[in-house]
Write a sequence for this structure.
């Protein structure tokens, strides 16, 4: 998936549509929803300082098309919705430490805040099948995209 990069309300609508569609699948369906959620998880809230929120407020003041905050706060509702729907954050299931998916070295700026906005979310019946998950940081992935890729292996 690739959710709206600039508008929180649109992301909220998009994730509700995705969850609604996934709910039409058989109850035992093995579901993986992955990609650029353009949202952060409350699991990593300690990684997002007040300075990030202030920078986002300033960005919204300068650019009318950017509306990523929710009531002037960092928005965790997108990933919360996935978790409330029963989905498991595969990376966090294996790793309890933080690892950013943006920015990469080639696309970051000195003032950029490391964030994890790319996720692999799995249905509960896949949780025990996850053997490896990583956000790949290396010399190649440092420069080929503005996001680091995620990989997951299942048994």
């Amino acid at each position: 998936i690739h959710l709206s990069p600039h508008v929180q309300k649109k992301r909220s609508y998009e994730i509700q549509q995705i969850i609604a569609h996934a709910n039409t699948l058989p109850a035992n369906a093995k579901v993986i929803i992955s990609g650029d959620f353009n949202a952060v998880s409350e699991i990593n809230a300690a990684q997002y300082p007040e300075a990030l929120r202030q920078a986002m407020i300033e960005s919204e003041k300068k650019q009318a098309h950017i509306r990523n905050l929710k009531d002037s706060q960092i928005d965790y509702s997108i990933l919360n919705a996935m978790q409330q729907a029963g989905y498991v954050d595969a990376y966090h299931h294996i790793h309890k430490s933080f690892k950013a998916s943006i920015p990469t070295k080639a696309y970051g700026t000195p003032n950029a805040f490391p964030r994890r906005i790319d996720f692999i979310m799995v249905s509960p019946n896949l949780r025990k099948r996850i053997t490896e998950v990583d956000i790949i940081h290396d010399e190649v992935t440092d420069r080929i995209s503005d996001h680091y890729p995620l990989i997951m292996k299942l048994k």
Summary: The first helix runs from residue 8 to 22. The two ends are 23 Å apart (CA to CA). The helical segments are 8-22, 50-62, 77-84, 90-94. Residues 83 and 117 are 15 Å apart (CA to CA).
